[in-house]
Amino acid sequence: MRDVEHAWPAEDASLHHSFGVWPLVIDDTTSILEWDPPRHVKMKARGWPAGSAHVVVDVEPAPGGCTVTLTEDAVEGPGLLVLKPIRTAILLVRNKETLNRLAFLSEGHAEGK
């Protein structure tokens, strides 16, 4: 993350992110499409020239905490040329790691906790 607009996470607010490995780093934005705290957020993550994706995070109460579900899929650009089963498999690996990192932070295992 490079910057976050003051209104984040209000609808239409954006955060500015970078991804990739130098020298192939892409700077772009992720914006909020739907915001229903603490249960749901839908975002549009841009990463042009690769395209953009919708990312949805849903939170459901569960015994001892909550269950977080993260779904993502391409909605624009060249990413749509990749067959959906292949996109799904690739995103599953990345999103599983994202959820593992979120759990690590939220359960107080981050450095300094």
Detailed description of the structure:
- The chain is an alpha+beta fold and 113 residues long.
- It is built from 1 helix and 6 strands.
- The protein has a 6-stranded antiparallel beta sheet.
- The protein has one domain (3-106).
- The chain has one helix at 84-106; strands at residues 3-4, 14-21, 24-36, 40-46, 52-62, 65-76.
Produce the secondary structure layout.
Blueprint: E1 3-4, E2 14-21, E3 24-36, E4 40-46, E5 52-62, E6 65-76, H1 84-106
Antiparallel strand pairs: 1-2, 2-3, 3-4, 4-5, 5-6
Mean pLDDT: 91
| N-end to C-end Cα span | 22 Å
How many beta-strand segments? 6
Strand content: over 45%
Q: How much helical structure, as a percent, in the residues?
A: 10-25%
Structural category is: alpha+beta
* Number of helical regions: 1
Q: Return residue spans where pLDDT drops below 50 for at least 5 consecutive residues.
A: none
Q: Would you list the SSEs in sequence order as H and E?
A: EEEEEEH
What is the topology, as strand order, of the major beta sheet?
1-2-3-4-5-6
Shape: globular
Mind summarizing the main beta sheet? 6 strands, antiparallel
| Total separate domains | 1
- The radius of gyration is 15 Å
Summed up:
The protein has one domain. Helices cover 20% and strands 47% of the residues.
Q: Which characteristics define this entry?
A:
1 helix; alpha+beta; 47% strand; 6-stranded antiparallel β-sheet; 113 residues
